Amino acid sequence: MSHIPAELQYTKEHEWVASTSTDLHIRMGITDYAQGALGDIVYVQMPKIGESVTADKVCGEVESTKSVSEIFAPVTGKVVAVNEELVNAPELINSDPYGAGWLIEIAVPSTPSGLLSAAEYGAITA
Questions:
Q1: Which of 33, 49, 43 is nearest to 104 (CA)?
Q2: Do 9 and 112 form a contact (C-beta atoms < 8 A)?
Q3: pTM
Q4: Domain membership of residue 96 as a residue range
Q5: Does residue 96 form part of some domain?
């Protein structure tokens, strides 16, 4: 059973979204369910700071020993931070998907909508 923190929001494509201390900035990553399905993650390709991302469009990829999977932007906005730790330690996504394994931070024009609650996401992964 994968861990689904109640304070986060989710997408059907298995990304999570969290508020940051900066208004209208969100942090995103892939869920515990996704990292478990992928297996050992060996490489992550993410957008660069300053790049625009569009909700539900591919913004990167995660490569594991099993496969390569696309990462979808959960919101539309501009990338303001990238987790540089993942360059040398992509396995952080496996060991701490909701903490040290975060992917990027995105500045958004307004509070995101259309995301799933923990209960709604849990129903998808059950």
A1: 49
A2: yes
A3: 0.94
A4: 9-109
A5: yes
On whether residue 27 sits in a domain, the answer given is: yes
Total domains present in the chain = 1
Q: Is residue 73 domain-resident?
A: yes
DSSP 61-82: EEEESS-EEEEE-SS-EEEEEE
Per-residue pLDDT tens digits of the chain, which is 126 residues long:
689 999 999 999 999 999 998 889 999 999 999 999 999 999 999 999 999 999 999 999 999 999 999 999 999 999 999 999 999 999 999 999 999 999 999 999 998 999 999 999 999 988
CA-to-CA distance for 24 and 109, rounded, in angstroms? 7
**Would you say residue 74 lies in a domain?**
yes
CATH number, domain with residue 95: 2.40.50.100
User: Per 3-state DSSP, what percentage of the chain is helix, strand, and coil (rounded to 5)?
Assistant: 20, 35, 50
Nearest to 17 by CA among 93, 124, 126, 103: 103
